[in-house]
Design goal:
The complex is a heterodimer of chains A (460) and B (1001).
Chain A: H1 24-36, H2 41-67, H3 82-93, H4 95-106, H5 116-136, H6 163-196, H7 200-209, H8 217-250, H9 262-289, H10 297-328, H11 331-342, H12 346-358, H13 366-369, H14 372-399, H15 414-437, H16 443-448
Helix pairs in contact in A: 2-15, 3-5, 3-9, 3-14, 4-5, 4-8, 4-9, 5-6, 5-9, 5-15, 6-7, 6-8, 8-9, 9-10, 9-14, 10-11, 11-12, 12-14
Chain B: H1 3-7, H2 10-16, H3 22-31, H4 45-56, E1 87-95, E2 98-107, E3 110-116, H5 129-138, E4 148-149, E5 152-153, H6 156-172, E6 178-182, E7 185-186, H7 188-200, E8 205-208, H8 215-225, E9 230-233, E10 240-244, H9 255-264, E11 277-282, H10 287-291, E12 294-297, H11 303-316, H12 336-348, E13 353-357, H13 363-375, E14 383-386, E15 391-392, H14 396-407, E16 413-417, H15 421-424, H16 431-436, E17 440-445, H17 450-454, E18 457-460, E19 469-472, E20 478-481, H18 494-503, H19 509-520, H20 526-536, E21 545-546, H21 552-560, E22 574-579, H22 593-596, E23 605-606, E24 611-613, H23 615-621, E25 627-633, E26 636-644, E27 652-656, E28 686-698, E29 702-703, H24 714-727, E30 730-732, H25 733-738, E31 767-772, H26 781-789, H27 797-801, E32 810-816, E33 823-829, H28 838-842, E34 848-850, E35 856-858, H29 868-872, E36 879-880, H30 891-894, E37 909-910, H31 916-928, H32 941-945, E38 951-955, H33 962-967, E39 972-973, E40 985-988, E41 990-992, H34 996-1000
Parallel strand pairs in B: 6-8, 6-16, 10-11, 10-13, 11-12, 16-17, 17-18, 22-27, 24-26, 30-41, 31-40
Antiparallel strand pairs in B: 1-2, 2-3, 4-5, 4-18, 7-15, 9-14, 14-21, 19-20, 22-28, 23-29, 24-27, 25-26, 25-28, 31-38, 32-33, 34-35, 36-37, 39-40
Helix pairs in contact in B: 5-26, 7-18, 8-13, 11-12, 11-13
The chains are: A mainly alpha (460), B alpha/beta (1001).
């Protein structure tokens, strides 16, 4: 491994990141065997559930296309409901992956190695879920190609002033780069699987997928450079994608949307929710697959700390919104925020505050950060809170904007709910397939932080 | 009677022989002969078109739904029809004793829209929601389609044969035990035919019954003067108006003219202009109450005492009101200084003041009002009395005695001309039972309603747009009603039926009307005059004006019999107040989807009526919005939902009539609650002593404003009140004088600068609109006119309930001030056509863009339906087709649609287009004629119908256009203009003109 990428200094004050006396061999064995052995019963059970969720989604979407967006609870002031909430929610979740892989990579955070593969896979599937929603929420799905900036017989370009179009580019780019980044990281591990494969089809499949990886010195050099470049490319995207998503709201003039703080606030929230989701998934996976030594309590501790930081950022943003609303002297702006706290959607607002601002404050305590059960519950609640954040922003602002004559309450229908539940089916179907067929922890990178990888390892 | 005489369609039959296909033959047989014509909604569009195509192959068959008798176009007199270019014909819409002169837009023999006729004094070119919506009634798929006898389908000839048998008996007895119940009418031909009928059957009875009528007013005038007469008001001459429980702008008689005249007295262009002053005392919150400068809420049963108190004060101040000496004012509990100030105001403006009372108030209130108007020298100035030329006013006493006779079995033959007495007769008459005792009963009705079902013969009634008839209004002018289309079903008109009863023969309406008019018009130039009347839509005849004097002796006598005691209502002893509905009137429009979905001007309820009550009443009774309660009144019970209306008189329960019918059609059946069930002959207007008992159940109501009720949401209420002063800008005349720029200075905002170079809109024409909030009454006519012009779908109660109503022009109503006695303001809001449109900037596919003449255009074909534009619209005027709302519109209803406007598909956003089709039509015409567009060439649908002329539309680059003139006024302001949207619609701020004496107190 390149020295530059994996600094040698090993802080003796800290406990090792990987425990249980792991060796290169044991790691390969542990991770690869999950993919090679028969799937446990629990996997099948979860997969069956996820697949039903997926079919539920497909059924709901079929009905949606047949009947129209009227099957949702949308109305005249509230033109965007759960579909857009879900879109922002899933894009937000998709943030942690790239943050962990790219940003933490550039900042040389070695603890990322145990969870980055996981997080990147999660990112890709979450972005797939996210991309679904802007597509299906339109009134005439069959004309979606009007969005594409391609020459056409109508001689029409899309409207480049519309943030929805920027969205389309931002999320699309993010998806492409994340996928490339993930795949590039997978290549050495795919080669390991190819080498361990016993059956011909498996050999061939992984052979093709690993693009002729032999593990030679020169290949490693190119690989690491490519990985670095992709990490560099992904890093601004982490900031850009949710910033652009936030402009859907920020560039409009709806009170409660029209806010300059949105881009950083959305990014912080996205990282927050992304880490929450990674935490949830990691805790399940390490329990089922016995990965306690590779994904240790220390990893969870660090993630909890990041959540604490981002939660505080989000909390700050919440309070700044109130301050600016008051400071603006604008009646509409002031009302939008008073209404959030005390109006028709106050219940949603207080769920959001409890989950996103109050709950993570418990992460100041080490005991809690090391309590897996509490972390698990907290990580789920964080995502509940973050879903409600998007709900509060989207729906409560639209529900009561400028002219009181148009104010109306929005309630979801069963189809709104089923679509959301179904999107989890889609996500978990992909995710479980990933767990089943691909190495969920980057063997290569974990090995890089083992003591053995340190050339001075023997001297300690 | 030969077939030829009956239908004049021998012509078709001979041509028919040329057409050799079975299909065509049966089509012609089924479709064309008058009397058997029927267009079922089951006929597929493809088939209809192919058959129409087949029929077009025969020259002369084109436009085959046009009547054969000559009818004269009003504006353009073409050699021939130009497909795609509508023709306009003058006609009139009968409405009880009134009628409204209309112009009918006719596309190739298919009427599609009604407008007011400018030459007709009842409409002056304006129309209300009922007139606008009546086009949909013509194409109602649930209309009565065939003659039937005891449930068996039949035809008109069979009916004539059956009548022939019975007729001999009645001829022998001179009409003994024969009776006619008609609705109120004012028609030279029907009046002539009634005379002939009574000549043939001298002993027959003819009574008129209308569930809501002005009988109290007429009897009141008789009480005071000894003569039965009806008053008509000249509100434009009145500086001070006192309305006693009278909604003269919306639900009383002659509202179109009243609203127009009232607005004339309220038009202000400058801070030094004068404006009339309106005092309203009422129990319900009405449109008139909302316009009031001073609104005194009081129970309807206190109005008599209030009128008496005003009269006594007038006496005290030296204006002797005859006949009021006997009234004891001991129990009156009105604020004396208020009454003093009010009376001083009336006296100062004597001869230019007006007191009027609602038809709900008993006769003695009207008698006092008449005497007061006389004392104030208003008679002949602001109020004029008329007799009833060619008219049949309703008379409850005659109707009662007829019902009694029917119940006794002493009526053998009964002819009911229109109406639905089984549904709307006073509950104590038990009319259904009485009707079932009549052996031979005939009901002429456009619907197979409750009355038809109990009659032995049902005869479909022609719509006024498909039959010949005539009408006359009290001021004199009469109009000929000319058909716009062949009858869609096997229907006859009331004159044709009455004539058949008299002569036993079927005579065409055209001949009947011509005969009448041969007496009216000079015989020498009859043909020419006839054509002129058809063309103009109005013929000026002598008016029925009479001059009456109060007979004090008579009045004293009458008033001594009356009680003026103020009864105290309470939670256990409630007052019930019956009123017509702004949507379905007395129930006649209940199957009209446009009207059912039209929000009530004050309650904003659609598709339902409710027990309306004040907040205090609801709080005392422990009720909330949408609670289903049992209302008990005089031993009758009714389950009805609760709706809270701030500002209603406490312990008064407002009940709208006309809902809850059981046999009117797919729209109106079981929609709302039938309040006629509580309405007895002694309490036609209001009653006392009702009780409310909760049922513990809920009944969901669909309101277009305050969805899910803001009742109890203090945050929202405060939010509304905080912003109202900048949304609906309002001042008193006094404030306006001292601060003429108040509207422009209502909001402080930073300088409005653009981020980019703005498009140049200086080259005309640039379309814009101005809406004068000071004269807008909120009558909702614009909403329906827009719906009719622009093919706006009806979405149904469930969709309205979740906030998906589609109206392009909506009427916002806000309550301001003290919530127990609030003022109310209205604001019509359509797309504001912002020059810096927030919707255009966010549409990802550029489906909404600006035209060079400043219209915010909507390209339906390009729209994918992201709804981002609607989210970003600060006015929330964009409407989304969540479903394919137009999919299930029956074929026949599609005929009401405007062929010049696209019908939108599901998934598409729509909104006001400034009547783009009219703009383009005018542009094309002017270009063809090599002229430039002048102000008035383009009239938007809302502007055209607005009874108060509150809306102006036109070129804002032309400084002399009406719209520019309005925009130049100092009251002009842009709604949410501080957002820098640069809207093309601006509003002229509202003014109120309170009495300075009362303001101090």
């Amino acid at each position: 491994m390149s020295e530059a990428l994996h600094p040698q200094q090993f802080d003796p004050e800290k406990a090792p990141l990987i425990t249980g006396g792991q060796t290169f061999g044991s790691i390969t064995e542990k991770i690869s065997s999950i993919v090679e052995k028969r799937a446990p019963k629990e996997w099948w059970l979860l997969f069956a559930m996820a697949l039903s969720g997926l079919f539920l989604l497909l059924g709901t979407l079929g009905w949606l296309i047949w009947e129209g967006t009227g099957i949702w609870g949308l109305n005249n002031p509230v033109g965007w409901g759960w579909a857009i909430v879900n879109f922002v929610f899933w894009v937000g979740i998709g943030h942690a992956g790239t943050l962990i892989s790219a940003v933490l990579f550039l900042f040389r955070q070695k603890w990322r190695t145990s969870i980055n593969r996981f997080a990147e896979a999660m990112t890709i599937f979450a972005v797939i879920c996210a991309l679904l929603f802007p597509g299906i929420h339109v009134g005439r799905i069959w004309l979606l190609y009007y969005f594409f900036p391609v020459p056409n017989q109508m001689g029409m370009w899309p409207n480049f002033r519309s943030p929805l179009l920027w969205d389309f580019f931002a999320v699309g780019t993010y998806f492409t780069v994340s996928l490339l980044f993930w795949y590039t990281g997978l290549i050495p591990d795919l080669a390991t699987l190819r080498d361990r494969a016993k059956k011909r089809i498996r050999k061939m499949t992984f052979g093709v997928l690993s693009l002729g990886w032999r593990g030679g010195n020169r290949q490693w050099q190119h690989y690491e450079l490519a990985y670095l470049v992709l990490a560099g490319l992904s890093t601004p995207l982490v900031l850009s994608v949710h910033s652009v998503v936030s402009t859907d709201f920020a560039t409009s003039l709806v009170p409660g949307w029209h806010t300059t703080i949105f881009p950083p606030y959305f990014v912080a929230g996205a990282v927050f929710s992304g880490f929450g989701m990674v935490m949830t998934l990691v805790i399940i996976a390490r329990k089922f697959y016995g990965l306690h030594h590779i994904i240790t309590a220390q990893h969870l501790d660090k993630m909890a700390k990041i959540m604490l930081v981002t939660s505080s950022m989000v909390g700050y943003a919440y309070s700044m919104e109130f301050f600016i609303a008051w400071y603006s002297g604008n009646v509409y702006e002031q009302f939008a925020f008073i209404n959030r706290g005390f109006g028709n959607y106050a219940w949603a607002y207080w769920i959001m505050i409890s989950c996103n601002v109050i709950l993570p404050q418990f992460f100041w305590f080490k005991k809690i950060r090391y309590n897996t059960k509490l972390l698990f519950i907290a990580s789920i609640l964080v995502n509940v809170g973050m879903w409600f954040e998007r709900f509060v922003i989207t729906v409560s602002s639209l529900s009561r904007d400028f002219l009181p004559s148009s104010w109306a309450y929005y309630s979801p229908t069963i189809f709104d709910i089923l679509t959301f539940v179904g999107s989890f089916g889609l996500f978990f179907t992909f995710f479980l397939l990933f767990l089943r067929f691909l190495p969920m922890v980057s063997m290569t990178e974990v090995k890089g932080i083992l003591p053995e990888a340190n050339q001075h390892h023997e001297t300690h | 009677m030969s077939k030829k005489q009956l239908n004049g369609k021998q012509y078709w039959r001979s041509l028919n022989q040329l057409a050799d296909t079975d299909e065509f033959r049966s089509f012609v047989e089924n479709e064309f002969p008058e009397g058997t014509l029927e267009l079922s909604d089951g006929l597929s569009r493809r088939k209809f078109l192919s058959l129409m195509g087949a029929s077009l192959a025969f020259a002369g068959l084109a436009g085959c739904r046009r009547p054969i008798e000559k009818i004269i176009p009003y504006v353009i007199s073409p050699e021939d029809i130009v497909p795609g270019i509508p023709l306009y014909y003058a006609s009139a819409m009968p409405f009880g004793l009134e009628s409204i002169g209309v112009l009918v837009e006719n596309h190739e023999g298919r009427p599609t829209k009604l407008e007011g006729n400018e030459s007709h004094p009842s409409s002056n070119g304006k129309a209300n929601a009922f007139v606008q919506a009546s086009i949909l009634d013509l194409y109602d798929p649930d209309r009565a389609k065939e003659v039937s006898n005891g449930g068996e389908s039949s035809d008109f000839e069979a009916f004539l044969l059956a009548w022939q048998d019975v007729r001999n008996k009645f001829e022998n007895s001179a009409g003994e035990n024969l009776a006619v119940i008609s609705t109120e009418y004012s028609s030279p031909t029907l009046a002539r035919l009634k005379k002939e009928f009574l000549k043939a059957y001298p002993n027959a009875t003819w009574v008129a019954y209308e569930p809501v009528n002005d009988e109290n007013v007429r009897r009141g005038i008789k009480m005071a003067t000894g003569t039965l007469a009806r008053p008509l008001y000249n509100l434009d001459k009145a500086n001070v108006i006192l309305a006693l429980d009278s909604d003269f702008l919306q639900t009383e008689s002659d509202v179109l003219r009243n609203a127009g005249d009232f607005a004339k007295g309220r038009k202000v262009t400058h801070e030094n202009d004068q404006m009339n002053r309106l005092y309203v005392a009422e129990s319900n919150y009405t449109v008139t109450g909302a316009m009031a400068d001073h609104r005194f809420k009081m129970q309807s049963n206190h109005i008599a005492a209030f009128a008496a108190a005003v009269a006594i004060e007038l006496n005290k101040q030296g204006f002797s009101v005859p006949g009021i000496d006997g009234i004891k004012s001991a129990g009156f509990s009105f604020n004396k200084s208020t009454i003093k100030a009010l009376v001083r105001d009336l006296i100062t403006n004597k001869g230019k003041s007006l007191i009027l009372a609602g038809s709900r108030q008993p006769a003695h209130v009207h008698a006092i009002v008449s005497a007061m108007n006389e004392a104030l020298s208003n008679i002949g100035e602001t109020v004029t009395y008329y007799t009833f030329p060619d008219a049949q006013p309703s008379d409850i006493a005659e109707f009662k005695s007829l019902s009694t006779k029917m119940a006794n079995g002493s009526i053998d033959g009964l002819i009911i001309l229109g109406g639905n007495p089984v549904y709307n007769a006073p509950a104590d008459f038990n009319f259904a039972n009485a009707l079932s005792k009549v052996e031979f009963s005939v009901h002429l009705s456009s619907k197979v309603n409750e009355t038809s079902l109990l009659s032995s013969w049902k005869i479909p009634e022609s719509h006024f747009l498909e039959s010949w008839n005539d009408v006359r209004i009290a001021q004199g002018p009469s109009s000929i009603i000319q058909p716009q289309i062949e009858p869609l079903y096997a229907s006859v008109s009331n004159i044709e039926l009455v004539s058949a009863f008299t002569t036993g023969q079927s005579v065409k309406g055209y001949d009947l009307v011509q005969e009448t008019w041969s007496y009216i018009l000079s015989p020498t130039k009859f043909e020419k005059s006839w054509r002129k009347v058809l063309h103009d839509g109005v013929h000026f005849q002598s008016s029925g004006e009479i001059s009456l004097k109060t007979n004090s002796k008579l009045l004293v006598n009458e008033l001594q019999k009356q009680s003026f005691a103020m009864r105290t209502a309470s939670a256990e002893n409630l007052e019930v107040v019956f009123s017509t509905s702004a949507s379905v009137y007395d129930g006649r429009f209940a199957n009209n989807g446009w009207l059912q979905e039209l929000p009530d001007p004050i309650t904003k309820l659609t598709w339902d009526n409710a027990a309306l009550m004040s907040r205090t009443t609801a709080k005392t009774l422990g009720l909330r919005n949408e609670d289903l309660v049992t209302l008990k009144f005089e031993g009758r019970n009714l389950n009805i939902p609760v709706w809270i209306v701030p500002g209603m008189a406490d312990y008064s329960i407002g009940l709208e009539l006309g809902y809850g019918q059981s046999s009117i059609g797919r729209i109106g059946d079981d929609t709302g609650v039938d309040t006629y069930k509580l309405r007895t002959s002694s309490h036609q207007g209001f009653g006392f002593g009702a009780m409310i008992v909760g049922t513990g159940l809920k009944y969901e109501l669909a309101s277009t404003q305050d969805h899910n009720g803001m009742d109890g949401d203090a945050t929202a209420e405060k939010g509304v009140q905080d912003r109202l002063p900048i949304i609906v800008r309002e001042a008193t005349m006094d404030e306006y004088k001292h601060h003429p720029e108040f509207a422009k200075e209502a909001v402080e905002h930073p300088p409005l600068i653009s981020m980019w170079e703005e498009k140049d809109y200086s080259e005309g024409p640039q379309w814009g609109m101005a809406i004068d909030l000071n004269v807008c009454t909120g009558c909702m006519a614009c909403t329906i006119a827009c719906q009719s012009e622009n093919n706006i779908p009806v979405v149904g109660k469930d969709q309205v309930k979740i906030g998906r109503e589609m109206h392009w022009m909506r009427m916002d109503r806000y309550f301001t001030g003290d919530i127990e006695n609030p003022k109310s303001v209205v604001q019509p809001v359509a797309c504001q056509h912002c020059e810096m449109a927030p919707c255009e900037q966010v549409c990802p596919v550029a489906a909404t863009t600006h035209t060079d003449d400043g219209i915010n255009g909507m390209t339906y074909n390009r729209c994918v339906g992201t709804r981002y534009c609607a989210n970003n619209c600060p006015y929330k005027v964009r409407r989304f087709n969540f479903y394919h709302y137009t999919k299930d519109i029956p074929e026949i209803v599609q005929m009401a649609q405007n062929p010049d406007v696209t019908v939108r598909f599901r998934g598409v956003m729509e909104k006001c287009t400034f009547c783009l089709q009219r703009v383009n039509q005018a542009k094309i015409t002017s270009k063809k004629n090599n002229q430039i567009l002048v102000d008035g060439d383009v009239v938007s649908a809302c502007q055209q119908t607005c009874p108060t002329d509150a809306i102006a539309f036109g070129d804002i680059t032309d400084p002399n256009s009406k719209v520019s003139q309005m925009k130049q006024q100092n009251r002009d302001y842009a709604l949410l203009g501080e957002l820098n949207t640069k809207p093309r619609i601006t509003y002229q701020a509202k003014l109120r003109n309170p009495n300075p004496e009362l303001e101090k107190g």
